Amino acid sequence: MGRTGCDYRCLLIPAALAFFYIQMRLFVTQSEYEGRLAAAIESESHCTSQSRLLIDQISTQQGTIVSLRDQNKRQSEECTQLKALLEDLERKGLKKLVDKVPVAAVVIMACNRADYLERTIESVLKYQSSVASKYPLFVSQDGTDPNVRSKAMSYDQLMYIQHLDSKPVHTERPGELIAYYKIARHYKWAMDQLFYKHNFSRVIILEDDMEIAPDFFDYFEAAAALLDKDKSIMAVSSWNDNGQKQFVHDPYELYRSDFFPGLGWMLTKSIWDELSPKWPKAYWDDWMRLKENHKGRHFLRPEVCRTYNFGEHGSSLGQFFQQYLQPIKLNNVKVDWKSRDLSYLMRDKYTKHFADIVRKAKPIQGTDAVLKAYNIEGDVRIQYKDQPDFERIARQFGIFEEWKDGIPRTSFKGVVVFRYQTTRRIFLVGPDSMKQLGTKDARNI
């Protein structure tokens, strides 16, 4: 019996230890749970706080957005009002400049040469003031040069327009100057403005480094009548590439040409309707000299230039300027173009008129053509076999050697004419020029 009681006591000890262990584990587990629960409650409180902060920030941002929208709306309304005001002022200004149907708008293309622009404007205004209603004057600036803008806007006698183009330029060939692309964009924009926004029927384009002759406007008024009558005339130029002092004489003489001269030229709205949709990305003047754009049409040009290009600086001309531009003779004779009969320039008369002059010239041959021409009284003609032969002869006389798309500069039917030393004319005649001119003297050259 005593042994049995001892056994029970021995069993109670492990049971008590086990119970104690279980209680300790429960306590530890409960403590851990309480800790986790507290952490969870704290985390929830933090999340709630962050959510409220985020909601507050979103509310603030929404308020800012609403404020910005209101500000943008106000600015948009202000811009609309300013645009309307500018257009109104522009209409009033244009009405002031034009009180009847003009002959042509005159636009000076400018960029960043304020000093050159001033010289050009002063030259134009010298002769434009008396005929301002016939020739409303514009300055079109490409870019934001402040000096050019302020200079242009300082003149009440002209309208200022500005071409702002932020689109990037992607050249087609490595190493190309983006300037050629920007110039082409500017020309298209300016002519679109003048022909389509202001609805002019003709536009004369000048550059910001040109001076004009006393009869510049009378010349273009007479030429405008020819443009209207003869659709085979694509444009009229005031420039002769071989217009250097030693190669010109007669301020009354005008020619048709297959080569686009540029440098002070006039075109009509109907021609621009054709050119504008396909205007090139760059090198617009070379593009104008492609036969595919001429479609058999010609350009009018004077013997003696009605514009003078003084732009030696701010360009890449260099030696070209010294040789070809600086010696140009600017006409100083006030020709009464209204009294001149220019019907010989019409398509149905001009080829015969020009052919008769060429046919009457004395033919000479040989490598010493310059010497022979100098010793002959009266006009002479010299035939060239091909482009290299033409370049050789042109080099001897000192005239332009360059061709574009198979056409020598200034030529008509392959014939290049210029004065030499005196009033005599030299005709450089292509291998089939006489045939193109329809003269029976083709075999006697």
From TrEMBL:
Q: Where in the cell is it found?
A: Golgi apparatus membrane
Q: What InterPro entries would the database entry show? A: Glyco_trans_13, Glycosyltransferase_13, Nucleotide-diphossugar_trans
Please list the GO terms describing molecular function: alpha-1,3-mannosylglycoprotein 2-beta-N-acetylglucosaminyltransferase activity; manganese ion binding
Q: Which keywords appear in this protein's UniProt record, sorted alphabetically?
A: Coiled coil, Glycosyltransferase, Golgi apparatus, Manganese, Membrane, Metal-binding, Signal-anchor, Transferase, Transmembrane, Transmembrane helix
Q: Does the keyword Cell cycle apply?
A: no
Q: Could you tell me what reaction this enzyme catalyses?
A: N(4)-(alpha-D-Man-(1->3)-[alpha-D-Man-(1->3)-[alpha-D-Man-(1->6)]-alpha-D-Man-(1->6)]-beta-D-Man-(1->4)-beta-D-GlcNAc-(1->4)-beta-D-GlcNAc)-L-asparaginyl-[protein] (N-glucan mannose isomer 5A1,2) + UDP-N-acetyl-alpha-D-glucosamine = N(4)-{beta-D-GlcNAc-(1->2)-alpha-D-Man-(1->3)-[alpha-D-Man-(1->3)-[alpha-D-Man-(1->6)]-alpha-D-Man-(1->6)]-beta-D-Man-(1->4)-beta-D-GlcNAc-(1->4)-beta-D-GlcNAc}-L-asparaginyl-[protein] + UDP + H(+)
Q: Which Pfam families match?
A: GNT-I
Q: Which residues form a coiled coil?
A: 65-92
Q: Does the keyword Coiled coil apply?
A: yes
Details of cofactor binding: The cofactor is mostly bound to the substrate.
The record ties this protein, via SUPFAM superfamilies, to:
Nucleotide-diphospho-sugar transferases
Membrane-protein topology: Single-pass type II membrane protein
EC number(s) on file: 2.4.1.101
| Gene Ontology CC | Golgi membrane
Functional description taken from the UniProt entry: Initiates complex N-linked carbohydrate formation. Essential for the conversion of high-mannose to hybrid and complex N-glycans.
Family, per entry: Belongs to the glycosyltransferase 13 family.
Protein name, UniProt field: Alpha-1,3-mannosyl-glycoprotein 2-beta-N-acetylglucosaminyltransferase
